[in-house]
Amino acid sequence: MSEELIEVADQIDNNEFKTGKWENENIAQVPFKVYRKQNTSTGLLNCSLCLDDKYFMTGYKNGTICLWETETGEIIKEYKKHNHYITQAKLFYEGQRILSSSYDMNVCVSDMETGETIWSSKHPGLVTSSDVSPDDKIIVSASDFDYSLYFWDFRNGKMINRVEGQHSSTPLCCTFSSDGQRVASTGIDANTKIYDLVSQKTTVTLSGHENVVSSCRFSHNQLFLCTSSWDKTLQIWDISTGGFRSQGSKVLADGHIGSVSCCSFSADDTKVVSGGYDQSICVWDTSAASKIVCLRGHTDWVTSVDITADGRYILSASEDSTLRLWDIGNIDDITLVQNARRTMTGGLAKCGNCGKPFIHPENERMSNMCVFCRLNDPTEDLIAAV
């Protein structure tokens, strides 16, 4: 791939925008909305889309949790369940319950409508991450005191299981697979581990990163696991056949120029989105293990990303106190993205006129039409294109 940075940069004056409005829509290559909570400068640590992507939930460093309406950018509800960094805030149980965890050492389940705490469990140390199973029955959390994973009954907070010393240092992320039978966790020890809830054993240990592994996500088809790291890379592991044991992982590199803090698969698993310390969001082609585009606009660390079910929008949260909603529905129309895709496919492109595939010779300038359509188009200078 060309060394040219594939970047879409759209800067705005943070004091002049209205939250939830499309910014620079007429001139931006990738339109975006900016959301900011009034009268706060505290950083955001996580974001998660919910309720058919019509809403999203956020967690702040000051312990505040907010439920936003995606279309308008309005905060529908605000909750104060914790007094320290929020490490998870998401809706579950058909939108009736909130799962939250925090550096205040607590995991909480609350009622969405009333905000009432249904149960709260105190850990022996900071709660660095938590997640809920797809069937909404089990909650997993990770603690930095004993480097363990805890499993809870969502109804009453009763502990179901504890996997002691799952990591040799602080775990930073824990997440369920889409069938709810496995939990992957990452940590400062640079390892990723997969715990099987059926056999109640740790079945896989992945060691490929050279620094802290900050987060991980299962693909929706459960064939792959993506990990992000402070070594500036992401890795995609084939966990379905155990191919990683002989072939290693696919490394996603040359995207971020600093630590990578978060990652997420698109619903069809064709893309991975990541955010990092370099204030950027990268979109990757999963099969080609190549960067498609880099989105810039945040002014501080990007801490969390999520993708709508239709794959059109990316939601990002940042230490700069803002969220952004990026419309990537038409990114394939951007020249730099077209260049990237042609490089991934060995020069193969789709004609914008007849729709048939064609090959771009290396010495030919960019065109979105095949040679036959250009011959029939009087506005195309075929000779100048060579």
Distance between the amino and carboxyl termini: 21 Å
Biggest sheet overview: 5 strands, mixed
**What's the helix count?**
3
If you average the pLDDT, what whole number results?
88
Radius of gyration: 22 Å
Q: Give me the oligomer status.
A: single chain
- According to DSSP, the number of beta strands is 32
Shape: globular
Low-confidence stretches: 1-17, 382-386
* Biggest sheet, spatial arrangement of strands: 1-27-26-25-24
Structural class: mainly beta
Helix content class:
under 10%
How much β-strand is present in the residues?
A: over 45%
Description:
- The protein has 386 residues and is mainly beta.
- It is 5% helix and 45% strand.
- It contains three helices and 32 strands.
- A five-stranded mixed beta sheet has the order 1-27-26-25-24.
- The radius of gyration is 22 Å and the shape is globular.
